[in-house]
Amino acid sequence: MNFDLGSNVGVGISILGGATITATTTGETIDLAGFNSACAVLGVGAVATADGLNYFTFTIQVGDASDMSDAASATITRAITDAGATWDRLINAATEANNAYLIGFNTGGKRYCRIVMTAMGLASACVTGVIVKGDPIRKPATI
C-alpha cells in the first residue's frame, strides 16, 4: 500500500490556465466519483486593471447531474492564501498576482463540482483552477 500523498488524491483541471481571462468563466465539471471530499486550488498569474471596481470572485458549484443543470453554490469551509492567511475569494489588486489560493468546500455528497470565476468590470487575470479530490474510497487513488 502506498502512503504518499499522490496515492491518496486525484486531480481535475476545471479552469485551464494560459490565456488571460477577462470575462466570467465557468470551469469544466469535475467528477468526484470514488472520492469523499475535495478542495479547489487556484494558481493566479498576472493580474491587470484590478481594483475596487474591477475584480474577480470565485465560487464552487456542486451538483448530481453531469451537465450541472442542478448546480448550487457549495458551502465554503476554508479560503486561504499560499502564506496561510484568510482570503476573501476576491482578486482585486495586482498584488494578488503570482500566488496560490486554496478553497475548501463541503461537497454535500454531490458527485460533480466546478469552479466559477465571476468578472466584475475590466479586470483581467491568468488563472488555473484545479480540483483536488481527497479521501478516496479505494487506495491507491486514480486520477
Helix content percent band: under 10%
CATH class placement? Mainly Beta
Number of helices: 0
Distance between the termini: 17 Å
The shape is: globular
Please name the CATH topology. Answer: Jelly Rolls
Main β-sheet description: 6 strands, antiparallel
Total number of domains: 1
Any idea what the radius of gyration is?
Answer: 15 Å
Estimate the mean pLDDT confidence. Answer: 92
Annotation, overall tally of beta strands = 12
Order of helices and strands: EEEEEEEEEEEE
Strand and helix map with partners:
Blueprint: E1 10-15, E2 20-21, E3 25-26, E4 30-31, E5 35-48, E6 55-63, E7 72-73, E8 75-81, E9 90-91, E10 99-106, E11 112-120, E12 124-136
Antiparallel strand pairs: 1-12, 2-12, 3-11, 4-11, 5-10, 5-12, 6-7, 6-9, 6-11, 8-10
Quick overview:
The chain is mainly beta.
Key descriptive features of the protein:
single chain, 143 residues, mainly beta, Jelly Rolls, 6-stranded antiparallel β-sheet
Structure characterization notes:
The chain has 143 residues and is mostly beta strands. It has a single domain (10-136), classed as Jelly Rolls (Sandwich). The protein has no helices and twelve strands. Strands 1, 2, 5, 8, 10 and 12 form a six-stranded antiparallel beta sheet that branches. Strands 3, 4, 6, 7, 9 and 11 form a six-stranded antiparallel beta sheet that branches. 29% of the residues are buried.
